[in-house]
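Assemble and predict.
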Amino acid sequence: MSDEHTPVPSSPGSGGDDLEHGGTAVRRDGRLFGVLAEYDTPGELVEAARKVRDAGFTEFDCYSPFPVHGIDEAMGIKRTILPLLIFGGGFAGTIGGLLLQWWCNAYNWPWNISGKPSWSIPANVPIAFETTILLAVFTSFFGMWILNRLPQVWHPFFRNERFNHVTDDAFLIGIEARDRRFDPVATAKLLTDAGAITVERVHLDPDPEVRQMPKWITAFIVASTAFALIPFAIAAKARTSHSAEPHIHIFPDMDFQPKYKSDQAMDLFGDGRENRGEIAGTIARGSLDADDTFYRGIEHGGDGDHWTTAFPRQIEINDQLVRRGKNRFEIYCTPCHGHDGRGMGAVPQRVAAAGGAWLARNLVDASNPVAINMPNGQLFNTISNGYNTMMGYAAQIPHADRWAIVLYVRALQRSQNAALDDVPPDQRTGMQMPEAPRP
Amino acid sequence: MSVLQKSLHPDEKYKAGKLGSGLSNIGLGIAAVFLGVSIALGAAQGDHWKRFFYAYVIGWSYIFSICVGVFWLILLHHLVRGRWATVVRRIAEAMTMAFPVVFVAGLVFVIALLAGYKDLYYWAHPDAALCLEKTATGCHEYLHPTLVHKLGWLSPEFFAGRYVVYGVLFTAMAAYFAKKSRQQDDSGDPKLSENMRVASGPAMILYSLLTCLAAFDVLMSLAPKWYSTIYGVNFWGSSCVGGFAALGLLVLGIQRTGRLTHSVSPEHYHDIGKWMFAMTFFWAYTAFSQFMLQWYGNLPEETVWYKYRLFGEWQWVSIAMLVGFFAFPFVFLMSRWTKRIVPSLVFFAVWQLVFHWLDLYWNAMPSYDWTVQQHGAAQIVVGPMTGNTAYHHVGFSPIDLTVWLGLVGVLLFGIGRNLRGNLIPVKDPTLGLSLAHENL
Amino acid sequence: MSTTDATMDSHHAEAGKAREAFRTVTRDVAWVAEAPKPHKAWLAALGVSLILLAIGLYSIYVLVTTGIGVWGNSNTVCWAWDITNFVWWIGIGHAGTLISAVLYLTRQTWRVSINRSAEAMTIFAVMCAGLFPLLHTGRPWFAWWMIPHPNDMQMWPQFRSPLMWDVFAVSTYMTTSILFWYMGMVPDLASFRDRCAARGDKLRAIIYGSLSLGWRGSARQWHRYERAYLILAGLATPLVFSVHSVVSFDFATSQLPGWHTTIFPPYFVAGAIFSGFAMVFTLLIPARHLFNLKHIIKDEHVEAACKIMLGTGMMVGLAYGTEFFIAWYSGNMFESFAFINRAFGPFWWAYFLMVSCNVLVPQAFWFKKVRRSPIIIFVLCILINVGMWFERFVIIATSLARSFLPAQWSYYTPTRYDVGLFIGTLGLFFTLFLLFFRYAPVIAISEVKGAMPEAHAGKKH
C-alpha cells in the first residue's frame, strides 16, 4: 500500500484498448470518460486546479482525502445556496412549531390548565425553538446530500486504481472528456506541466449493463420500503375504522380484577344475582328510626297503638315551621290538592279539561271533614305512604318536613273554615267574607 | 492547526501618540457638559434627586458593564491560548483599565447612600424596617417580613464596603493583565504569556463571583423583595453584548485615525461580530429563562417584577427589547456579511450599545415608582413595586439621557488615559497568528 | 538539470513523508476495525456489558409487565432514580455535541482526535436517557400519544407542559446527533470501503460502500459538505443549550422550593458538559491506551479536557453558591428550609457526596501533575460522574421528600429494579460503544488529516 511513486511521463495518445496498468492488464475498455492526474501535495493540487480553471475547463473536479484549504477559490467554486435553504428551513420550523401549538391548544381544543392562557407564547417558545432547529438540521443534512447528488455509489473514476487512494492519501484532478476544451493530448500535457506525478486515462466499461444499478439492489430497496410501510398501514387502518372487538390489553395489569361488580350475574347464589339485598333483621346504620311517633306518627298507648293527635316532641311549633310547611306544601302537594287545599290543583284541572276525572281529596272541607278529623299521625302516614292514587312521598320529604306540612295543613284547614271572629280585631277592617265557598 | 503567520506590517502605525489624551479630553468634556446639565435637571425635577440617582445608577451600571464585558475577552483569550484577539487585546486592556475611574464615578451614589440618602434604594429607607405591631421583646408584625432579615446585608455600610471590594479587585485584576501585557512589549518573554494564562483561571472565578454580586447589589436590590438566581448571569450576558460592541467601535475609531490599518482586518471584526451575535443570543436565553420560569411558576412575590414591565406603558419598552435587543440583531448578525462589512457592523454595534442601555433601564427604572400608603394615622412610603400598574409610567426624562451620556464621557476619559504607548502587543508570541487570522 | 532533479527528488521525498503520515492515520484508525480477532480486553468488556444489559432487560420486563410499583417511588417522592438517571444520561450526552460542535466553532483543532467517539457517546447516552421517560409513564405502549395526531379521543398533547418540551427537545437532539455523527463518518466510511475493496473483502466493501453513499472526495462536494458541517455545528450549539435547559425546566417551572429557581438552565448546561467530559475521558483514557491511539488522542488533549472540567465544575459550584445565597436572601422560609434540609436532613450523605465530588474533586485539576496522570484522571472522572448523579438525586429526592406539607414527608429507598435498570443502561451504553469502537471509524480520519501540518504541504505562502 505504501509504494513510492516515481515520476512517470504520461503515455501519448494510445487509443482505447488493452492498456497496461501497473502490471495488470485491464479488460477491453469502452469510451474515454476522462483523465486523472495525481499530485504530490495539497499545495500542488491547488495550483494545478487554478491552472485548469484558468485554461477554461468547467467539467473538472479535484479529489482529496480531506477538504484542501484554498481549493474552492482556485477552482472557482461558487458559494453554495445551502445556507439560504437552511435559513428557510429553520424559519419554516419556527412558524410550523408555533402554528402547531396554537392550532392544537388554542384553537381546536382550548383547555384551561392551571390558568395559563390557551395561547401561551412563553410556554410555546421551547417547542418552537426545537422545531426550528429540527427543520434546519433536516434541510442541512438532506439538502447537502441532494445538492451533492449523493448517494451515487458508482462513478467511472472508481475504475482507476489510483483513485481508490483518494480517501487515503492521494490528491487527484479529474477532467471529464465531455468538457468542450478537452483534448486527450493537450489536456494531459496541461496537467503534467502543472506538476502531475501521473496522468492516466479512464474509460467507461464497454458493457452498458455494468454501469447500471444491479437489479437485485433496486428490488431490495423497493421491497424493504414496502415492508417498512406495513406497520403504518396497519396503524392507519386501525385508526380510521371501527371495530366491535374489545380492546387489546397488552399488559392486563389490573384491568381484569377477580371481583364482581354491582348487579352482575353470578352463579354462586341460587338467584344468579351478585346483589344480595338486605339481610333480614338488619337495619342500615342511621336508619333505626326507633321513635315511632316521629317517624311513623304512631303513639303506643296503654290500650294499643293509635295515630298521634299531637305533634312529636322533636317538633317545635312556631311561625318558622308553618312557613316551612307552606313552602314544602306548595312544592309537593299543590299540584293535586291546590293552593287552598280544596283538591283542585293543576293536575285535576287538566284532567277535567281533557274530559276525565282526577280526585284529590279536599283537605279543608268542613262539610265532609275526613281530613279535618284525621289525627296528625294519620295525615303524616298518608304523606309518607300515599293513599289510592296518591303516591307516598317518604323518599322525597324528610320526616321533619312532613310534620311541617301536617302543621300547615292544619293551618289551612283553620284558615279555609274561619269566621270573622277568628280574625284578630285589629286586622278586621277591609276584610270581606266570600259570598260562597269557592269550588 | 493553522501554521499561517504574518508579521507586523513595516509601515504600521501602532503607537498611540496623542490618541489617548485626545480621547480622554473629549471624554472629560462630554462628562462635564452632560453631568453639569444633569445636575441642573436633577435639581429641577423636584423629587429630591430621586430621578437623578436612578439615572446615575443606570448610567454607572452601563459603563461598569462595558468594562466587564471587555474583560471577559481578555480573560478567555489568555485562558484558552486564543489567537485571533491578540491584535485588539491591548485596546481591550485599555478599556478594562477604566475600572478605577468607573468606580470613582460610582462613589457619587455610594457616598449619597452612606450620607443617608433614602430614596434610591428602599432598603436604605427607614420604612423598610418598619414594625407595625411591637411586642415587649421584639416585633410581632413587620411591614416587610421578607425584607427585614437581610437589612444587615442590604445596609448602606455593608453595601459600600462591598462596593469598595469590587472596585479594588476589578482594578487589581485588570491591572495585572494590562501590566504583564505591557511588560511583554519590551522583552517578548513567552513566560509572561504563561503567567497571564495561569492567572486567568483564578481571575475568571473571581470575575464571575464579583460580577454576579455586583449585579445583585446595584441593580437587583432596587427591588429588594424580588430575587432571581440567574440575574447576575443575565447582566453578564448583556454586558458582553455591550462590551464587544464598544470594543468594535473603539478599534474602528482608532483605525480611522490611521493607526492599526494593516493589522486589524475584516476577519477580526467578523470575530467581534460573532461574539456580539453569540452574546445577544445568550442574553436572550437568560432573559427568557428568567421570565418564563417566573411566569410559569406564577408566584406573586416573583411575578410582581414582571407585572410592572409587561403591563401598562412598560410593555412597549419590553416589546422594544425583545425585537430590538434580540430578534432584529440576531437575525441580521447571523449572516457573515453583516459582520465583515464595516458600515454594517458599525450600525449593529451602535444599535446594541443603545439597546444594552435600554436593557439596564428596563431593569432598573420601573422600581422608581414608590407609593405612599396609609397605616392608621401614619403615612408610610412603601417601596418599589407596590403601586398600581395602571399608573406605572415610563416617563422618559431628558435626565436619563444626559446622565447616561455624561457617564459615557467618564468612561471615555478612563479609557483614553490608558491608550498610551503601543496599541498592539508587539512582542506577543501569538501576534503573528492573530495578524494572519482567517475565518472559514 | 541535475539540480532540478535533485530538488524534485527532495521535494518528492518530503511529499512522500507527508503522504506516509496520512496513510498512517488511516491505517492506525482502520486497524481497530480490521483486526481479524478482537482484542481480548474488548471481548472481556463486551461480556461484562452484555451481562449488565441482561440485568437491565430483566428489570424492564418486570417493570413493564407489573407496573411502577416495583420501583421505590411513592406519592411523596414521585420522581427518583428514574428522572435522576434521565438527566444524568442526557447530561453525559452533551459533552459529545460540545466537543463536536462548540470546539469546532471555536476552532479548537485538537478536537479532531476525540470528536467521533464523543458523538457516538452522545447518541448512545441519549438512547439510554430516553428509556427513562418512556418507562416511567407506566404504560409505555401509549407513548405515541405524545405525538400530535388526529385521534378518536379528540385530544391534543398539552404543549404548554415542560414534559412535552422534553419530548421535542430530546427527539430533536437525538435526530441531530445521529445525522451529525453519520455525516462526519461518511468520508471515513469511504476510507474503510476502499481499504476493504483493495483487500478483496467484498461483503464489508459493500456494507461500507452503501453507508458511505459513494463518497469520492470531490472538492465540489467537500465545499457543500463543509458548509453543512459548519452550519450543523452552529445549530447543534444552541441545541445543546436548549435541550438541557428544557430538561431543567421540568423542575424550574414548578413551585417546589429547591426546584423553582431561574438559574437552572445555564447551571444544568454547565453540569451536563462537566459530567459529559468526565464520561468521555472515562472511556477514552483506557481506549487510547489499549488501542495504541496515544499519538492521536494526545496528552495535551486530555489535559485540555481536564481544564474544561475544572471550568465547568467551578460554574456548577458558583450556581450552588448563588442558589444558597438567594435562598437566604429571598426570605422565603420554604426555600431556606429546602437548602438547610439538603445539607442536614435525611439525605445529608448524598449532599456531602455531591459537594465533594463536584466542587472539591475537580480542584485537583489545578495541578499539572494531575492533568498529566491518566490513571488519576480516570479515577477523578468516575468520581465526577458519581457526584453529578448525586447532584440530580439531591435536587429531585430531597426537595420532594421534604416539601410544603410535613404530613407528606417521607424517605426514599430504591428497589432492586431501580438499580437493575440503571445498571442495564450502563450495560447498553457500553455495549453500543464497544460495538461502535470495533466496527466504525472511531477517529475522524479525514478531519485529523485536515488538521495536520502536512495538510498544508506544498503551499506557497
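The longest helix of chain C spans residues 162-199.
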